[in-house]
Fold this protein.
Amino acid sequence: MKVLWIVNCPFPETAKELSLSSPLSQGWVLDICHRLNDLGEVTLCVVSTGEVGELKHLSFGGTEHYVIPKPGRFHGKNFYAAYIKKIFEAFYPDIIHIFGTENDLGTAVINSYPDIPVLLTIQGVMDRISKEYYGGISLWEMLKYRTMRENLRFGGMLFAKIRLNKQCKTEYETLQKITHVTGRTLWDYSVMKRINPKIKYHRCNFNLREQFYDAPKWTLDKSVRHTIYTGYADYPLKGLHVLLLALEIVKQSYPDVKLYVPGVPGDDTGELIVNTGYKKLIRDRIEKSKIKSNVVFCGPLSADKVIDRMLKSHIVVLPSAIEGASATVCEGMYLGLPCICAFRGGMTQLLRDGHSGFYYDYPEYGYLAERIMRLFEDDDLCNRFSKNVIEDASIRHDRQKNPEEYLQVYHEIINEKREEI
C-alpha cells in the first residue's frame, strides 16, 4: 500500500540534511511514521513545504521525503501544481493522508488528484482557534502593546487573527471535499460534523514523541516543590496572561513558586526576550504583579529537555482558551505529573476532574490559583492523580495499537473506493 502524507513541515532528519530549521512539534507524526514502517504493509512518502529554492527529494529509513518551496505572498492558487505533478509521477499513492485542516498544500493535492481517496487528520480546528485567538485580551490592550515592527509590517495580535480567518477558509474548502477524517475527541467530532455533516469520523489517538516511551516516571520525591510547567505560550490563545494572574495569587502563600515557560525565548537568566506586542503585555503583567523572579522563560526545548524539566516540576498547568488535545498535557500525563487544564475544547476529555487532575473555567484565574495551591499542599492527592493519569495515558498513547488503527482506516477507505468503482 502506497500512502502519501501531507505534513506542515519537514521531518527533523530531512530538515537537518537540507539545513532547514527543525520545529519541535509534530513528533507524534514522526513516531507513527516509524511504527507504520515497522508493520511492513505501507510504503510512505512525506511531502511538506520549506525554505528551499527548488523541489527537494530525500530518502530515509524506507520513506521518501519531498520538500516543496513555500509560495510567496503574490503567488496564485496554482503555485503547487507543477511540483505536485512531478511528485505523483514518481510516487502515485493508493491514499493521501493530510495532517491539519489549515494546510493549503493539502487542498491543492485534492484539487489536482480528486480520484485518489483522502484521509484528513485533525490537529487544530482553525474555525475555533480563530474565534478564541485573543484569549480575552481587550482591543485596548492589543493597541497599547503593539510594537513598531508590528505597525510597519502589519503584524501582531490584530493581524494574526486576519491570517487565521484566511486559514479558516482553507479549512472549510478542504472539509467540503473530503469524506474521511480522524480525530481524538467528541469536541473535534462535533466541530467537523457542523462544517460538513457528511464526514465519516474515525477516532484514532496520537503517539507521543519517541523519547517519552523510554523516560522514567515522575515521582513527587524527585520533583522540585512548588514548580509549574506549562505549554508553549507565544500568543494569547495559549492563556499565559491568565496563568500569570493566578501565579500572583499563589505567590502570596508560596513565595518560592516557580513557573517554567517553554518555547518562548528567554535570555541567559531566563528573563523574557520582548519582540512582539503580546510579549510586551506579558512583561508588563509580570512587572506589575511583582513575579519577575518566579517566571523562567526556557526557550525551545528538545524532547529530552522537556522530559527533564517535567520530571523536576511539581505540576503541569495548561491555561489555553481553546485546545484540541494538548501535547504538553498528554506528555505530562504519560510521565505521571498531576495536571490542571482549562475546561475548553478537546481538553474536556483528557482528564477526569478530581480523579486524574483538575479542570477550571478559562478566565477564572482565582479558581485556578486555588487548584494549584490544593496540589501544592496535598501530597496524597498528587500521588493519586499521578497513578491515575499514567493508567489513562498508557491506554490513549499505545505505541503499537495507534499505528495499527491508522492502517485499518487506510484499508477501509481504499476498499470503499474500490467498491465505488
Remarks:
- The domain at 2-144+165-207+399-420 is CATH 3.40.50.2000 (Rossmann fold).
